[in-house]
Amino acid sequence: MKDETARDYAEQIWRVVDYVNANLDRSLDAAHLTKVAGLSKFHFHRQFRGYAGISVSKLVRLLHLKRASYQLVFDPSYPIINIAYDAGFANPESFSRTFKKAQGQTPSQFRANPDWKDGAKQYQFHRGRTPCKSRS
Questions:
Q1: How far apart are CA 64 and CA 66, in angstroms?
Q2: Per residue in 92-109, pLDDT tens?
Q3: What single DSSP character describes residue 123?
Q4: Segment (H or E) for 8
Q5: Inter-axis angle of helices 30-37 and 56-74, to 10 degrees?
Q6: Chain segment 50-97, per-residue pLDDT in tens
């Protein structure tokens, strides 16, 4: 892949990451995100995974959990059930299971005594990752 093409793909993918981060309260379906990237659905998913290292659906889930972790700590009066719904979960139980798996603590435990070091690494995305290899 030429350097210029790789830079263009990287720009398109990170535009999507920025868009998702800024629009967590909106519907973030794949069809819309492919338009943000300006790529076909197949090409978008392949390039996204290559640059970000995860699927776009996992990115959306992780960014929702990241926002939830901040809400739990910095807005202690905001009910956990509301945080769960804001994060796109159908019920607080599934939110709690997913949050604990990602963060190592239940939402209540995290709110009372947040352990940022274990879960924080998964929320970090770095621009300039190596693109996926194109198959010839």
A1: 5
A2: 999 999 999 988 999 999
A3: G
A4: helix 3-22
A5: 100
A6: 888 888 998 999 999 999 999 999 999 999 999 999 999 999 999 999
Domains observed in the chain: 3-57 (1.10.10.60), 59-123 (1.10.10.60)
Distance of CA 9 to the CA centre of its chain: 19
Q: Is the pTM of this model over 0.85?
A: no
Q: Give the whole-angstrom CA distance, residue 15 versus residue 55.
A: 15
Q: How many CB atoms lie within 10 A of CB 61?
A: 17
Tokens 């379906």 locate to 29
Q: Which tokens hold the place of 100?
A: 């604990």
The length of the chain, given as a count of residues: 136
d(CA 94, CA 128): 34
